[in-house]
Amino acid sequence: MSSTTYSLKARYVFPVAGDPIADGVVTFDRERIISVGPSVGDEADIEDLGNVAILPGLVNAHTHLEFSHLDRPIGYRGMTLGDWIARLVSELRIEDRPPADAVRRGLLESLMSGTTALGEIAQPDWSADDFQAVPIDCTVFLELISPTDAGVDEVLKLAHRHIAAGETYQQMQLGWRWRPGICPHAPYSVHPRLLSEAAAISARHKVPLSFHLAESPEEIEFLQTSGGVFRDMLELLEQWDPSAHRPGRRPFDLLRVLAPAHRLLIVHGNYLEDEEIAFIARHAQTMSVVYCPRTHHYFGHIPHPLEKLLSSGVNVALGTDSRASSPDLNLLSDMRHVAHCHPAIALKTVLRMGTLGGAKALGLEGELGTLEVGKRPHMAVLPLPDRREADPHSLLFDQNAPIRSTWFGGNCMDDPTSLG
Ligand SMILES: [Zn+2]
User: Is 369 helix (H, G, I), strand (E, B) or coil?
Assistant: First the structure.
């Protein structure tokens, strides 16, 4: 065994690609997993971690790290999305801009809670330097906003620049620390021409596309009538373009526009209807829904159509969304929330959504999301309670212990201060 090979043993290894393995051992080097299986007795080179679970690194498919400095969500539970956005804009973007280290704080918090890959929604002034010290695999979706036709070309230029920067970064072979994606923001903030161009750019450059869709009743009202709080907001901001937002639409119309995207992450999907869910299921190779459980809870939406999405064959990923609408960036807490609020869903499916589901949504299922030979050795270690369970997945979710450490190859991250 070479000196750069590592073997970890745990009470349970959860490969996600198969059943939990009791007394499991994961062997890996800096780049790849070499083997996953039960302990065979020769333990000289094996580090026994004891009563813990080894999980694939968690994948947080949707967050906005720029708000990671917040101690608690903006506003109050049950407020409308329109009121929340108005407060977000007035409190954070104009009067009191987020501190420069917010992104870095968010990355550290994510890392320490077991996240090894995430989908980040970034502003045009985002800095790749913020991502260098923390080894999380980031897909950086540049947020694209232009409700009017007049602003579309400028925003498209930003998108092209962002993708070119990502391609240059990857050619430099500095690793895969970040890759570009694009995020036309939402139905009320994106001109139809921007949406169709974004889908074409995603297809041409093979980059993933995130879009907030079917998130709130106000958004559905805006699509149906061109009216409501989002119309008022656009008029107030002098961004109302009457030619852009014709009435009589629904999320289905926008899904069709976005169908050519290389990978489409439909963020939230709280108000998706059956026909829309069936459409997403028919495009399951490229489309995913990202459910943000505790953010969904914060806004007091109707129950999420999670069960229907899963039974229809839709790939569902999980996201924390930001600290502006969720208490923290701990994806395991969102998984526990799902396990608690959706008891009909098998716990192994909850684990899958927080790992492989996210990897697939981001187009990384060949590299991450499961513990399988050849994949990257990104892992999270969780202490387990002493009791026994018929389904070992109960040990993960029916308890409150935090992740103990996060592994990237041979690097064990269990102390944020070690990263400066
Ligand atoms: Zn979002």
Answer: coil
